[in-house]
Amino acid sequence: MPREFFPRSASYDRDWIEQHSVGENVLHFTESLSQVMELRPGMRILDLGCGHALSSIFLAREFGVRVWAVDFGVDPGANQLRIEEFGCGELVRPLRADVRALPLPHDFFDAAVAVDSYRYFGTDQRFLSSLVRHLRPDGLLGIVDACTSREISTAEDLKPALRQEWLDGSWYLAHTIDWWRQHLTRTGLLEVTLAELLPGSDAIRTRYLDRFRDDPEESDMVTFMEAEAGDLTGSFRLTARRTGRVAPLEDEGEIPY
């Protein structure tokens, strides 16, 4: 992986990173996002769908920010051990929670990030209202995720060799960069400040295929990516800022912080 794209990540053990990454190297994604977000020591960061908390650890160690590492499917106790292993116990707080119903205060976080996770919950237009209420005025949102070069309405839009893997690999959750820009601004709650193909996207793709080509659990993804040969899929990064519009509240059942 070219060091010029990810100089900070190069100081971490690649085998350890990849062992604890769900898919691509999560530190490459996180570092790419950090290059276009203003991160200052002491900022309060909400890490959505943090997985094994590697993104949270990286942000805390590299930038001195305080991170709430949220994931519903990963044991927070195991994440706590990884966090303490890197000396980040005072900066990173792991939580098991549904990102759609966060037990956290409103107008509290300076930024929220979603590294290779936003497409799994953020295509629901209502999600943005529930998320933005947790950001302070002018708070930031940063996303790194999979994208497509064109919109695919149904699997029938693809050549037959790609259709089954498109469905089995959940590629139908991926969209174009323009789609995401429009999706995130249509409520008036966010102003998108950057949306672009991820620098190093091809290198990240190549490394993923090299790692998982013989892994049966990733066979649907690998088969699809090799068949489309990089013409359809890639990775993107997006940053946005909360506007002054008040996020509507749909319920009053919030869990106290």
TrEMBL record:
<feature type="domain" description="Methyltransferase">
    <location>
        <begin position="45"/>
        <end position="139"/>
    </location>
</feature>
<keyword id="KW-0489">Methyltransferase</keyword>
<protein>
    <submittedName>
        <fullName>Methyltransferase domain-containing protein</fullName>
    </submittedName>
</protein>
<dbReference type="GO" id="GO:0032259">
    <property type="term" value="P:methylation"/>
</dbReference>
<dbReference type="InterPro" id="IPR050447">
    <property type="entry name" value="Erg6_SMT_methyltransf"/>
</dbReference>
<dbReference type="GO" id="GO:0008168">
    <property type="term" value="F:methyltransferase activity"/>
</dbReference>
<keyword id="KW-0808">Transferase</keyword>
<dbReference type="Pfam" id="PF13649">
    <property type="entry name" value="Methyltransf_25"/>
</dbReference>
<dbReference type="InterPro" id="IPR029063">
    <property type="entry name" value="SAM-dependent_MTases_sf"/>
</dbReference>
<dbReference type="InterPro" id="IPR041698">
    <property type="entry name" value="Methyltransf_25"/>
</dbReference>
